[in-house]
Write a structure and sequence with these properties.
By secondary structure, the protein is mainly β. The protein has one domain (2-189): Porin. 15% of the residues lie in helices and 42% in strands. The protein is built from two helices and twelve strands; from the N terminus they run βββββββββαβββα. The chain has a twelve-stranded antiparallel sheet, covered by helices on one side. The radius of gyration is 15 Å and the shape is globular. It starts with 7 loop residues before the first strand and ends with a helix.
């Protein structure tokens, strides 16, 4: 089952969607690996990640613990086994200047961070949102991944690289991180 996961992806989401957004995460060969159809106007975010556009094969669940997303925590579960894989907590006040998320393991202990690249560029982006974002994924002092946005005025496109993660980061949590960035941070741009 973990064979659908890889260390490199291209993820995209249309910029303007009024009745909900669709995200596609493609593998290194350009084939669809994951699909999300996000419903608009939900008070409590609940996202299901599928392997197909027909939405017949659910693999991950991401659910907000509370209403709103300013400092929300999102639980990540394996839809097949029901296993709680971990969570991501948005650092609301810190994210005003520089987007930052804390990665938690299945028991709730901090295992890493997902953080916008530099404080100066992050501040500049607040005034010029057309400047692409780059997120670093770290575990301890080690950078295990990068999620880099391409400039595209019509859709949000991320080049995702978890090559350095090895076995340090569960690949399912990596995919969930990309989905949350498209869903939550992407909402600020689109």
């Amino acid at each position: 089952m973990l064979s659908i996961y890889s260390s490199r992806y291209v993820a995209n989401k249309a910029m303007f969607a009024f009745l909900g957004s669709a995200f596609r995460i493609l593998g290194p060969e350009g084939n669809l690996r994951f699909f999300v159809k996000q419903k608009a106007f939900k008070l409590k975010e609940e996202i299901t990640v599928f392997t197909d556009e027909k939405q017949s094969d659910a693999v991950l669940g991401i659910q907000a613990r509370g209403i709103g997303d300013f400092s929300g925590t999102y639980d990540i579960t394996d839809k097949k086994s029901g296993e709680r894989l971990g969570a991501m907590k948005r650092e609301g006040l810190k994210s005003l200047l520089r987007d930052e998320w804390t990665l938690l393991d299945g028991s709730g202990a901090m295992i890493g961070k997902v953080m916008e690249d530099s404080g100066g560029m992050a501040l500049l982006r607040r005034f010029l949102p057309i400047i692409p974002q780059t997120f670093r994924v770290t575990m301890g002092d080690k950078q295990v991944g990068q999620i880099k946005q391409r400039f595209n005025p019509f859709q949000i496109v991320y080049d995702v690289d978890f090559e350095a993660a090895g076995e340090d980061l569960d690949p399912r949590v990596g995919v969930a991180a990309v989905v949350l960035l498209l869903a939550i941070e992407g909402r600020q741009q689109g």
